[in-house]
Amino acid sequence: MTVPKSQRLHIALFGRRNAGKSSLINALTGQDLAIVSDVPGTTTDPVFKAMEILPLGPVVLIDTAGIDDVGELGQLRKKKSYEVFEKTDLVLLVIDPQAGYGEFEKEVVQKAQKTQTPVIYVINKVDLYQPSELLEQFKPLNLQPVVFVSALTRKGIDELKQAIINHAPKEWILPTVVGDLINPGDVVICVIPVDKAAPKGRLILPQQIVIRDIIDSEAMAMVVKERELIHAFNYLNKKPSLVVTDASVYNKAAADTPSDIRLTSFSILFARYKGDLQTLVEGVKAVKNLKPGDKVLISEACTHHPVEDDIGRVKIPRWLRAQVGGDLDIDVKAGGGPLPEPLNQYKLIVHCGACMLNRKEMLSRIMQAKVAGVPIVNYGVIMAHIHGVLHRALSPFPHLQSIISETMDDMKEEIESLKKIRGRR
Amino acid sequence: MTVPKSQRLHIALFGRRNAGKSSLINALTGQDLAIVSDVPGTTTDPVFKAMEILPLGPVVLIDTAGIDDVGELGQLRKKKSYEVFEKTDLVLLVIDPQAGYGEFEKEVVQKAQKTQTPVIYVINKVDLYQPSELLEQFKPLNLQPVVFVSALTRKGIDELKQAIINHAPKEWILPTVVGDLINPGDVVICVIPVDKAAPKGRLILPQQIVIRDIIDSEAMAMVVKERELIHAFNYLNKKPSLVVTDASVYNKAAADTPSDIRLTSFSILFARYKGDLQTLVEGVKAVKNLKPGDKVLISEACTHHPVEDDIGRVKIPRWLRAQVGGDLDIDVKAGGGPLPEPLNQYKLIVHCGACMLNRKEMLSRIMQAKVAGVPIVNYGVIMAHIHGVLHRALSPFPHLQSIISETMDDMKEEIESLKKIRGRR
C-alpha cells in the first residue's frame, strides 16, 4: 500500500532546461507564480511551492533544476533534484518534442522506479506541432501514461489533472476535514441524530473523523442529539465557532442555531474532504438549465438495495422533474470504476456521497465530468439546495456562497423578466 | 449469528412442579425473592423478574408455571410457558432426580430446539444423593450441557453461572456502558489524548461507544484532549456530572477536575461493561496477600508483539515484585479460550483489558477464576490502583469504593502494627 509521503500531495516536475516546467505549473494552478522565461536554466534549485490546484486541493509542486545542465553547478543541481524523489508522491516528466526523449529522461525514469514513484510523461508545447507529427515521434516509444499538453493554450491540462489523480497514492487524503475552519480553544457543536439509520452503539466514520479533527486542532467538540442542541447553547458561556449537523436534521439545527454562528453539515464537509466542493456547488447551477427530455446520470459508488423513497432513485429524480416541469431521461448507474462513456450525453451528473470511494476515486470522477464538460453535483450538495439550506450550509465557505448567490440573482432576474413578459400580454 | 432477544439476558427456568425452580433463582441471585414452597404448583404464571446476578449483571429470569400440571388450569399454564420461548435467550431445564428425565423434559427440549434456544440441563437437589447414584441415573441419558447443583447448599451454583455465560448469545452486551450513571441533560466530559497510540484520524471503539451512549441518554458529550480539559470547565456554565478520561492521562485529568465532580476512566467503565467490576476490584485486595515465590498468571486475550516497558510483561510484574518484596513466579499466557488449568496453582490472575474479547468470553474467564477460587483483576483496575487513583476512579460506584476503603483500612492497620513491632525491638 502506497502512503503519501506527506499530507499534501507532492508533485515533482522534472524536465530539461526550457521544457516548460514553470509555465506548466502556472497552467495547473491558473496563477502566474513561477518565473516563466525562455532563458534556459532560470530555475536554479528545487523549489517547494505549496499551492491549491482545483479540484485537487492543496498540493506541493516541486520545481526542479534542469537536469541536463552541464558543468559543476549542473552536477550539484542534478544531485539535489534526485534528493527530491524521497519527498515525491508523483513525477511529471515534462518533455519538449524538439528535444525529444533521450538519456536524461531515461535516467529520471530509472530513479523514479527505484523509489517506486509513479511517472506521468507530459509532452508539452503540442500547439507547435501537427498531431500526426507527435504521434509519429512518440507512439513508437510506448510511454505510459502519457498526456499531450500545451501550457500556453491550456490544451490537455484537465487531462493532466485527471492523470495526476489517477496516479496519486491510494491513501491520498486532505490534511484536515474541519481543522482549517476553526481555531485552538474553539467550541464546535456536532449534532448527531440517533435514528434507525444510525449503527447500534457507535459512531459512523465521518462523525469520528470530524470529532477527532476538532480535538486534534486543540478545539473542543460538544456532541449532542438534535433535541439537546438548544440546551448546549444554554450550557456554554462561550459562543461556539461552528455547528456541524447531520443533514437529516438540518432544519431543526438551523432553527436552533443563532444566525451569527456558522452552520454546516457533515455531508458538506465531506464533499470538500472527499472531492471538490467548488465543482459540486457549481454543479447546482446547472439544474436551472435542464430542459424536459434531457439526460441526467445518477451515479452511485456502491450497489445497495434501493429503499423506499430512495434518495437517488426517487427523491432527487422527483425533485428534478418538478424543477424542469416535465420528464427527464434519468439513468442510474451503480458501481466502481469510471463513469459511463460517452459522458457528454448527460446534461447533469448527480453523484452519491461517495462513502465507499476514497478521495482519489471521487476526484477522478469529478475530473472525468470536467473533461467531458458535464456539470456534476453530489447528493449532499443538491439535497441542501432542495431543502433551501445550501447557502447557510456554506457559511464556513463565503467564496462558495457567492456562487449560489449568483444563481439566486440569476433566478430573481429571470422571474422579473418573466413577470414583465406576462405583464405585456 | 444469535442476537439477544433483549438487551438484558432472558433466562427461562422450566421444570416440573417442585423441581426447585424458585429456590434455584434464590441461589443464583443470592436473594430471597421467589416464593419457596414445597406445595407443588405454587408458581402459577410465567413471572418476569429483572434482577442482578453477579458477575453476569442485569438479567431477566423467567419463572414458568410447572409444565406437568394437569387439568384445564394446567393446560393454560402450559400454553403460556411455551409463549415464553419467543422471549428467551437461554433455558434452564431444572430436573429433580426423584422425578427423573421424562416426557415433559423431552417436550421442553423439542420446543427449545424449534426456536433454536440453548438448553442447560440442571440436575437439582444433588445434596440428597450419592454422586454414584446420580452418575448411574444420568450418564446413560447423555444430556449436554449438564450441571449438578444443590439450590439448598449452593453446590454447583458457580458452575451453573459459568454454563449460563458459555451458552449465552455471542452478542450479549450490557444495556449501557455509562447511561445508568448520568441523567438526561447532563454534560459529560470525555478526555481523549492524541498520542502515538491513537489511531490516525478516528476514534477507538470504546470512545465511540461511550460518546454514543451519552447522547443516547439525552446527555451531552464534551470531547477534549487533556490539555483543553481545564478550558472545558471554564466554558461550561453547568457543572459536568461526570468526567471520563483515558487512563493514560488520569493524573492530569484528576488534577484539573474539581473534587466534587465524579471522575472515572474508559478502562473502569469497560471493566464493568465487558466483565464484572466488583470481582475485579475485589481482586485488587488479593495483592497484599501475595508472598515471595507465589505463582501469578498474566493473561492476555491476544498475542501482540510485546513493546518496550510492556504493561503486562514488564510494568505490572515489576510493581507486584516490589509489593511483595521478593520474586514471584509469573506466567504470561496469551490467546483465546479458557484460562490454563489447573488454575488454582495461581494466587492471582491479572487479565488484560479484554478489547479482543466479548463480554461473554471475559465473564467466562472471570467465572473460571471464581470456580477455582483464584482472585482476578484486570489491567485497568490494577493500573489505577498502582497509580493511586482507583478510589477516585470508582467515584461513580460508591459501593465498590467501600471495598477499596476496607483494603486501605487493612493496610493502615498493618502499617500501624508493623510500626509497633518495630518500636518494641
Q: Tags for this entry?
A:
homodimer, 425 residues, Rossmann fold, 3 domains, 6-stranded mixed beta sheet, 4-stranded parallel beta sheet, 15 helices, 14 strands, 17% strand
What report would you give on this structure?
The structure is a homodimer of 425-residue chains. The first copy, chain A, has a six-stranded mixed β-sheet, sandwiched between helices. The longest helix of chain A has 27 residues, at 398-424. Chain A is globular and about 70 Å long. The relative contact order of chain A is 0.10. Chain A contains 15 helices and 14 strands. Chain A has three domains: 9-167, Rossmann fold, CATH 3.40.50; 179-269, 3-Layer(aba) Sandwich (Rossmann fold), CATH 3.40.50.11420; 276-402, Rossmann fold. In chain A, helix 5 (157-167) runs antiparallel to helix 12, helix 10 packs parallel to helix 15 and helix 11 (311-324) packs across helix 13 (379-386). Chain A is of the alpha/beta class and 425 residues long. Chain A binds chain B through residues 173, 185, 187, 192, 194, 201-203, 205, 208-209, 211-216, 218-225, 227-228, 231-232, 234-238, and chain B through 173, 185, 187, 192, 194, 201-203, 205, 208-209, 211-216, 218-225, 227-228, 231-232, 235-238. Chains A, B: One of its GO terms (molecular function) is GTP binding. Chains A, B: Residues 178-275 form the Hydrogen maturase F dimerization domain. Chains A, B: It holds the Pfam family HydF_dimer. Chains A, B: It comes from Thermodesulfovibrio aggregans.
Question: What's this, in brief?
Answer:
Chain A is of the alpha/beta class and 425 residues long. Chain A folds into three domains: 9-167, Rossmann fold (3-Layer(aba) Sandwich); 179-269, Rossmann fold (3-Layer(aba) Sandwich); 276-402, 3-Layer(aba) Sandwich (Rossmann fold). Chain A has helices spanning 21-29, 71-83, 103-114, 131-138, 157-167, 205-216, 229-235, 250-256, 266-274, 277-285, 311-324, 359-372, 379-386, 390-393, 398-424; strands at residues 9-15, 47-53, 57-63, 90-95, 119-123, 146-148, 187-191, 220-224, 242-245, 262-265, 295-300, 329-334, 348-351, 376-378.
